[in-house]
């Protein structure tokens, strides 16, 4: 991965892992002590603070020496039991602790920064860092470049220094002690120590790397084993608990040994937690004071925190308050480091962290935003970029564990009014259907996803067809996606059916059950239907050789075939990438329109809309049913069926109707959202499964919204929100590939539905179109090239000033609100006036009668 | 579908059909649907070409002065096609069965184009009565006064009062205080066509825009007077020691002009100047570019790529961006750098006019109002001599090479700005389109002629109507409902950042007659509808409030009266006898008011029983109370309520007007204030006084409602003889005025 960055920054590199350019020199070679080669092949001063793990490593080495000390002290006691009293023994123990502790402190003081209880260390990345001599490169197979130096500075030398100090201090203290108490035999402990120190040093020199990477486990296992051995030794044949405990407690020596073991165990545990989970992907948790900016604003003095699920950017606002911005890794599309590095500047680089030129990391988000981090320290920048890149790869669609994603840890922070998981059930859809026609039933044939993994468990099927038929039909269709009703038109009773391609193969197999099922869906009135294949006839032919194909005319006599090619997968993804390239390109020279043209995106929009219009026309005007499939029936098929429904069904143009449509036609129909949305307009595809089909659907919907501004209950905010949530969300709606997966990971319990979030008054309010007037007719949009326009409010929303547009929206609401208010006010006035009028009339009548009476008198 | 007619161009004039100018069985080709043809008849009048289809549903009116070209295409099987293109981007293809007819029609059409300025449409045009031949005088001096000129830096110079110094400049010009007459004359001789540097805009911070034409510098010529003049311009601004000279041509063009003895200022001769080129292409490139845009628009069923490619290759949006960039550069220099800017191009009347007016528009919020925008056009375009007649090709004799969409570009840039800042402008898209169309149509005298001198010679002000008068009379149609005078964008200097992505293609301008392409439902139309409805309701609410107040006082008085009924007996007695006849007369009323009630669908809770019980004592109370001069009788109130519709028919719903004219989104629909239905402009009568309105303003009402209002008003008058005298008179007056209106 780091190689990636090197290629990007285009620098001539030193060969070998540990060779680098020294400061102010042009020769490749070993770095000085205290320097470590970085990814740019430059020796860079190690100035990282001592991490806990490194610290624990030194502690471990010190403890190792200490334990040897104690072992030998212990042996002394066994030899000379009488003369070696407990007090002397304890003093000796503490003396050894003191020696090691002093040596430890001196060691920390010795290494830079000198005089402080810490060290500057180089980062240890690999085991090989401890053994650079095995990695010397041979340039052109001739000359061996010697680049052995202390890569892991100062972890290697620190241990030597530590032991040297320890033995020196011991040689100072112990003879003093011996001379005070005049017992010669104690000097044996000095001799043994002088014996084991060199042994330890050799051990460290040879196996330092192994110890470094394994010491936590070593410590834990050894602590446990030693403790067990210690206990057995104490017990020594005792079978009674009480006497064992008395023996244990009675001896202070046992206490101490036990304590040491516990400390060892703790050390091991603490060190081990460093290697937890994804933390190893995060190389630099916090970067201070970079400039964070997007297209329109820049926020100096930000703090960037890299956490488990997102990057938190805290920046100071103009009013002095701090504002946090969270960016999910799932939302990051591509990291593009832009380091102003040229060969001639390289020699000056390492020593100038305060240099004015900054290193920019461009983070392109899936929601099409672009963020810039201007970091002033090269190493920070590289680490930040590398961690982000690693995290993005980790959260990728294919190899990522879904439960790691943020929706699984997102605590619901709002009151759910209507639970989105249960809001759109098959039953409610079925009851709607029941009102139009009673020829359908709900089947449990797919219980436990037995016959189709990508369909929901309960399905609406024709009444006249048994489950056995469905099973047979499923075997005949790709991925078991047998023909399924998706829309029944109210007036003509013709329906839209979707499925996957039939597996006819080159031998043109047939399946009577499938034919029966398909024919059962035809309306009684028009015993004819259309089969719309969203692939080109040539594509169908090549699919037939692979076992797929399209329904042959001879077996499906009641159906006519139509091919409308709609691009998907790589072609569509490429088109989207090109579109975004064109949108973010701010250079003057290139012609924007020709770039837009080159992207072909609008062409895809036009094609999708045209196909949907054809379907709508067939359903509404010709009153015949349409069966739609592509190859798998979960990509372009869904695009066509859902768009056709928006055209045909006024219910789909309301907010809940639109949500139901997405739930029904996209989520439950098994559009693999996680695969399709793992990359957006900037990222490079990793598995070829990415495809902005849902975006295309939203774009087409927007085109309709734009042509029929008053027929939709929602505005484009809803569409933009849906786009954002499809790519990166804290909700569980769009993170599964199909219903089965949702059940498998128990998504309903662990995550929150997006619809629960949307369907609250305060959120819903922002989606309302003030000009909505229910339009019960079928929409006939213009699909001429001139009418298809770019969705600026999505693709360019971060590159244009949106404040005037927001003002416009406020003004809309104001005007509409005023009209409604005035209307009701006038109504009220009129009623009041009539009321008054009536009163007046009564009064005058009264007066009249009164007057009449007067007159008669 | 084809668009049918454009509402601005007075259809209601007396129509004189020319002899033999009627061609039958003409087919009109639908651009978007080759199979569907409309068969109808072409009529020719002295002003219009009219196409009527057999059911009389669709009428296409084309003004002769708007016709850009009538081309005879090669004969086909069906007949002889004749394509008519207009200057407002309407294109229609007639297929005429007989070739002879076609040839004749073609020849007549070409003849009907005015051959001289004297024959232009503005001299023939008979405006509706509410327009009068009054020219609200535009005084350049007042506009300069608004900017605070003359002041201690700038003075008025009237040396051009006889157009002898420069015939394309206005009679008075504004120059720095320190200039002398000699300097001005010297400079004007050094500048192309005598267009010397004069002030056009002064920013509150003291920086100014001056405009001129290119110097006749050639390779080495210099003029001391001109250099002095520039120095004195520089000295008017104390904030900066340098000034910009902006040449709006591309560098190559400027250098090429040098060879012809013209060129640009030599930086060695002029001290303290910063010279900059803002490359805007010349009129010929622009003309070609527009032609390509129109070709792109006229493509039959293009694929997405073809269409985008055609738009791209026209470079139209790039030219628009170049103009906008130049304007923004000038605005920045003025507002941020506080430097004086001198702008010129070749002759200083095309690109200079564009840049100066646009940068003024960016800098000064005043110019973003309708009135201010008028001032801007009068000042920068009309006074300083943009050659409207030549650029728009008003007459048959005008040179094709001189035509260029310079003004259109300016209008489009303004439109682009309104798209970026929708709340900052007081006028709407319709205003801009109308402005463009009338610069071509010659319906009003404003845009006739090439400069002030021409218009003076042609006697435009005496003999024609003023466009601004027309705008002011219909100002509601041209107001931007989103305009927010208090918003930051409306009150500040606008300095947008423009990328090529920012600019949109102006569908409503170039595609406005392709109804099938444009959005079926659009928000601006709905907004106008809402605004109109709000206005109607507001007015009505005020009347209702007044009536309620009146009734309340009456009720209170009645209460008092019943309390003291014995004391006030004689008074009552007398008046009651007076009211007797009215009671009987009123009994005739209910059926009528009932029927009108059903028509307009007014509130049903208004029960008929209330209506039949007439209340003469109300009048009586009223008379005794004395203070209130208006008498709200029950019929009157019912009548008033009937005259205003509470709910209006949705803007989207009807596809046809009652006159069976199909609506499309380019057309303005009018709601009848009385019945709330949608009507086209022909079926609506402006200027009816509705009794349900508080203010005496004129309301648009459909013809049926206007008739019923009139009749019921007269009925109402007959039935209420007990009205006070002056009120009767007022009623009479108003009904008279209504009659007047109806005659129109």
From TrEMBL, chain A:
UniProt keyword list: Coiled coil, Membrane, Transmembrane, Transmembrane helix
Membrane spanning residue stretches: 55-72, 92-111, 151-173, 185-204, 210-234, 255-275
Domain (Myotubularin phosphatase) ranges: 420-795
InterPro entries hit by this protein: JAMP, Myotubularin, Myotubularin-like_Pase_dom, Prot-tyrosine_phosphatase-like
Coiled coil regions in record: 819-846
SUPFAM superfamilies the UniProt entry points to: (Phosphotyrosine protein) phosphatases II
Matches recorded under CDD domains: PTP-MTMR9 (cd14536)
Pfam hit, one: JAMP
GO annotation, cellular component aspect: cytoplasm; membrane
Keyword Transmembrane: yes
Gene Ontology molecular-function annotations: protein phosphatase binding
BP GO terms, sorted: negative regulation of autophagy; phosphatidylinositol dephosphorylation; response to unfolded protein
Family: Belongs to the protein-tyrosine phosphatase family. Non-receptor class myotubularin subfamily.
The name this protein goes by in its record: Myotubularin phosphatase domain-containing protein
Organism: Adineta steineri
UniProtKB/TrEMBL annotation, chain B:
Xref: InterPro entries: Myotubularin, Myotubularin-like_Pase_dom, PH-GRAM_MTMR6-9, PH-like_dom_sf, Prot-tyrosine_phosphatase-like, Tyr_Pase_AS, Tyr_Pase_cat, Znf_FYVE
Keyword set, alphabetical order: Hydrolase, Lipid metabolism, Membrane, Metal-binding, Zinc, Zinc-finger
One Pfam family here: Myotub-related
GO cellular component: a single term: cytoplasm
Key word Disulfide bond present: no
Ranges for domain Myotubularin phosphatase: 134-510
Residue ranges of every copy of the FYVE-type domain listed in the record: 659-710
Record: residues binding substrate: 282-283, 345-351
Region (Disordered): 556-627, 716-744
Family per similarity comment: Belongs to the protein-tyrosine phosphatase family. Non-receptor class myotubularin subfamily.
Protein name: phosphatidylinositol-3,5-bisphosphate 3-phosphatase
Species this chain originates from: Adineta steineri
Taxonomic path: Eukaryota, Metazoa, Spiralia, Gnathifera, Rotifera
């Amino acid at each position: 991965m780091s190689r990636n960055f090197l290629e990007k920054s285009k620098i001539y590199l030193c060969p070998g892992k540990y060779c680098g350019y020294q400061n102010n020199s042009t020769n490749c070679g070993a770095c000085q002590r205290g320097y470590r080669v970085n990814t740019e092949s430059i020796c860079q001063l190690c100035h990282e603070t001592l991490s806990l793990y490194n610290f624990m490593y030194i502690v471990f080495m010190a403890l190792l020496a200490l334990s040897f000390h104690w072992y030998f002290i212990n042996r002394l006691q066994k030899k000379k039991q009488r003369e070696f009293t407990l007090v002397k023994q304890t003093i000796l123990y503490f003396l050894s602790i003191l020696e090691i502790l002093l040596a430890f402190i001196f060691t920390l003081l010795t290494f830079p920064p000198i005089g402080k209880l810490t060290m500057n260390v180089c980062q240890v990345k690999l085991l090989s860092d401890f053994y650079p001599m095995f990695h010397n490169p041979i340039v052109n197979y001739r000359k061996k470049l010697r680049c052995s130096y202390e890569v892991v500075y100062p972890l290697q030398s620190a241990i030597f220094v530590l032991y040297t100090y320890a033995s020196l201090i011991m040689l100072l203290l112990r003879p003093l002690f011996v001379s005070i108490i005049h017992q010669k035999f104690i000097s044996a402990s000095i001799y043994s120590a002088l014996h084991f120190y060199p042994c330890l040093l050799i051990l460290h020199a040879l196996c330092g790397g192994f110890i470094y990477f394994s010491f936590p486990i070593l410590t834990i296992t050894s602590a446990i084993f030693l403790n067990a051995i210690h206990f057995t030794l104490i017990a020594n044949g005792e079978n009674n608990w009480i006497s064992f405990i008395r023996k244990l407690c009675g001896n202070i020596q046992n206490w101490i040994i036990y304590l040491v073991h516990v400390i060892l165990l703790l050390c091991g545990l603490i060190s081990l937690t460093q290697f937890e989970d994804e933390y190893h992907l995060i190389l630099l948790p916090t970067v201070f004071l970079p400039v964070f900016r997007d297209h329109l604003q820049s926020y100096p003095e930000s703090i960037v925190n890299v956490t488990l699920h997102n990057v938190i950017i805290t920046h100071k606002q103009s009013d002095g308050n701090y504002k946090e911005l969270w960016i999910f890794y799932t939302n990051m599309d591509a990291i593009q480091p832009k380091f102003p590095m040229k060969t001639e500047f390289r020699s000056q680089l390492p020593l100038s962290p305060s240099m004015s030129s900054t290193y920019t990391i461009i983070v392109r988000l899936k929601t099409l935003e672009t963020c810039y981090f201007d970091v002033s320290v090269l190493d920070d920048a590289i680490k930040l970029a590398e961690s982000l890149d690693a995290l993005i790869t980790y959260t990728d669609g294919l190899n990522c564990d879904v439960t790691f994603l943020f929706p699984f840890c997102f605590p619901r922070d709002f009151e759910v009014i209507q639970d989105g998981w249960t809001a759109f059930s098959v039953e409610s859809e079925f009851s709607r259907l029941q009102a139009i026609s009673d020829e359908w039933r709900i089947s449990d044939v797919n219980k436990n996803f037995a016959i189709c993994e990508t369909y929901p468990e309960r399905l609406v099927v024709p009444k006249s067809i048994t489950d056995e038929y469905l099973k047979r039909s499923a075997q005949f269709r790709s991925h078991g996606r047998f023909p399924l009703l998706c829309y029944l038109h109210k007036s003509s009773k013709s329906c839209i059916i979707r499925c996957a391609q039939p597996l006819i193969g080159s031998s043109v197999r047939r399946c009577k059950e499938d034919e029966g099922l398909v024919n059962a869906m035809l309306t009684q009135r028009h015993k004819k239907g259309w089969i719309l294949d969203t692939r080109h006839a040539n594509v169908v032919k090549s699919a037939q050789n692979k076992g797929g194909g399209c329904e042959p005319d001879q077996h499906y006599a009641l159906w006519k075939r139509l091919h409308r090619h709609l691009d998907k997968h790589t072609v569509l993804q490429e088109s989207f990438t090109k579109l975004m390239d064109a949108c973010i390109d701010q250079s003057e020279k290139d012609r924007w329109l020709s770039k837009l043209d080159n992207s072909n995106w609008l062409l895809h929009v036009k094609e999708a809309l045209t196909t949907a219009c054809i379907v709508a026309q067939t359903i509404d005007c010709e009153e015949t049913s349409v069966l739609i499939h592509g190859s798998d029936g979960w990509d372009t098929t869904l695009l066509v069926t859902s768009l056709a429904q928006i055209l045909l069904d006024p219910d789909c143009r309301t907010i809940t109707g639109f949500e139901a449509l997405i739930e029904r036609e996209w989520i439950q129909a098994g559009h693999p959202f996680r695969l399709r949305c793992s990359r957006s307009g900037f990222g490079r595809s990793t598995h070829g499964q990415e495809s902005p089909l849902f975006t295309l659907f939203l774009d087409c919907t927007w085109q309709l919204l734009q042509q029929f501004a008053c027929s939709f209950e929602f505005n484009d905010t809803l569409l933009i929100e849906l786009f954002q949530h499809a790519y990166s969300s804290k909700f569980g709606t769009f993170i599964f590939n199909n219903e089965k997966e949702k059940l498998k990971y128990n998504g309903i319990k662990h995550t929150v539905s997006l619809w629960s979030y949307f369907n609250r008054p305060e959120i819903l309010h922002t989606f309302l179109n003030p000009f909505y007037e229910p339009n019960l007719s079928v929409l006939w949009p213009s699909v001429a090239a001139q009418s298809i326009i770019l969705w600026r409010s999505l693709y360019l929303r971060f590159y244009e000033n949106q404040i005037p547009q927001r003002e416009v929206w406020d003004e809309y609401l104001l005007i509409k609100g005023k009209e409604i208010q005035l209307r009701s006010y006038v109504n009220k006035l009129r009623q009041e006036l009539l009321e008054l009028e009536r009163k007046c009339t009564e009064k005058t009548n009264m007066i009249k009668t009164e007057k009449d009476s007067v007159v008669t008198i | 579908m084809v668009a049918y007619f454009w509402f601005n161009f007075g259809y209601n004039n007396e129509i004189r059909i020319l002899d033999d100018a009627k061609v039958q069985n003409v087919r009109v080709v639908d651009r978007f649907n080759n199979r569907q043809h409309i068969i109808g008849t072409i009529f020719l009048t002295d002003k219009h070409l009219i196409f009527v289809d057999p059911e009389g549903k669709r009428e296409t009116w084309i003004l002769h002065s708007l016709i850009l070209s009538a081309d005879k295409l090669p004969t086909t099987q069906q007949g002889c096609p004749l394509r008519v293109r207009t200057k407002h981007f309407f294109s229609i293809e007639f297929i005429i069965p007989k070739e002879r007819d076609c040839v004749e029609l073609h020849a007549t059409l070409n003849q009907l184009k005015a051959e001289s300025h004297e024959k232009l449409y503005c001299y023939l045009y008979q405006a509706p009565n509410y327009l009068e031949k009054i020219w609200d005088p535009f005084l350049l001096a007042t506009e300069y006064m608004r900017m605070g000129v003359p002041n201690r830096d700038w003075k008025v110079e009237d040396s051009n009062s006889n157009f002898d110094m420069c015939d394309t400049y206005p009679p008075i010009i504004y120059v720095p205080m320190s200039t002398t007459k000699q300097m001005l004359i010297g400079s004007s001789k050094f500048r192309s066509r005598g267009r010397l540097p004069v002030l056009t805009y002064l920013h509150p911070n003291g920086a100014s825009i001056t405009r001129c034409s290119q110097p006749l510098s050639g390779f080495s010529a210099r003029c001391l007077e001109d250099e002095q003049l520039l120095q004195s311009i520089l000295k008017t601004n104390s904030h900066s020691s340098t000034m910009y000279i902006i040449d709006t041509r591309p560098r190559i063009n400027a250098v090429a002009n040098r060879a012809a003895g013209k060129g640009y200022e030599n930086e060695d001769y002029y001290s303290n100047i910063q010279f900059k080129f803002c490359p805007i292409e010349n009129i010929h490139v622009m003309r070609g570019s527009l032609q390509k845009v129109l070709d792109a628009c006229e493509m039959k069923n293009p694929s997405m790529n073809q269409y985008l490619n055609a738009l791209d290759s026209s470079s139209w949006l790039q030219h628009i961006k170049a103009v906008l960039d130049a304007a923004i550069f000038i605005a920045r220099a003025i507002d941020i750098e506080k430097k004086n800017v001198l702008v010129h191009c070749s002759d200083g009347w095309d690109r200079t006019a564009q840049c100066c007016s646009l940068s003024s528009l960016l800098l000064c919020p005043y110019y973003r109002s309708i009135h201010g925008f008028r001032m801007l056009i009068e000042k920068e375009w009309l006074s300083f001599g943009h050659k409207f007649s030549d650029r728009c090709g008003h007459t048959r004799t005008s040179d094709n090479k001189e035509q260029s969409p310079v003004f259109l570009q300016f209008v489009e840039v303004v439109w682009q700005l309104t798209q970026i800042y929708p709340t900052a402008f007081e006028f709407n898209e319709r205003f801009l389109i109308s402005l463009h169309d009338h610069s071509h149509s010659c319906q009003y005298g404003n845009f006739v002629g090439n400069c002030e001198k021409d218009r003076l010679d042609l006697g435009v002000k005496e003999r024609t109507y003023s466009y601004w008068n027309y705008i002011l009379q219909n100002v509601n149609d041209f107001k931007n409902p989103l305009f927010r005078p208090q918003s930051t964008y409306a009150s500040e200097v606008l300095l947008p950042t423009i990328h090529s992505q920012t600019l949109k293609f102006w569908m409503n301008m170039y595609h406005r007659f392709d109804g099938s392409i444009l959005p079926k439902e659009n928000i601006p139309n709905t907004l106008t509808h809402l605004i109109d409805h709000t206005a109607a309701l507001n007015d009505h609410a005020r009347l209702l409030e007044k009536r309620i107040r009146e009734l309340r006082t009456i009720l209170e008085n009645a209460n008092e009266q019943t309390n003291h009924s014995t004391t006030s007996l004689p008074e009552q007695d007398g008046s009651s006898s007076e009211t007797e006849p009215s009671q009987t007369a009123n009994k005739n009323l209910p059926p009528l008011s009932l029927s009108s009630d059903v028509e307009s669908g007014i509130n049903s809770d208004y029960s008929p029983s209330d209506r039949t019980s007439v209340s003469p004592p109300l009048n009586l109370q009223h008379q005794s109370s004395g203070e209130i001069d208006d008498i709200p009788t029950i019929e009157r109130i019912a009548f008033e309520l009937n005259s205003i519709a509470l709910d209006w028919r949705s803007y989207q719903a009807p596809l046809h007007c009652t006159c069976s004219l199909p609506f499309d989104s380019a057309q303005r629909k009018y709601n009848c204030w009385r019945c709330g239905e949608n009507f086209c402009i022909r079926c609506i009568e402006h200027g009816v006084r509705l009794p349900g309105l508080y203010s005496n303003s004129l309301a648009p009402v459909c013809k049926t409602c206007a008739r019923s209002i009139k009749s019921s008003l007269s009925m109402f008058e007959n039935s209420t003889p007990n009205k006070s005298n002056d009120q009767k008179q007022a009623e009479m007056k108003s009904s008279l005025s209504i009659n007047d209106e109806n005659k129109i």
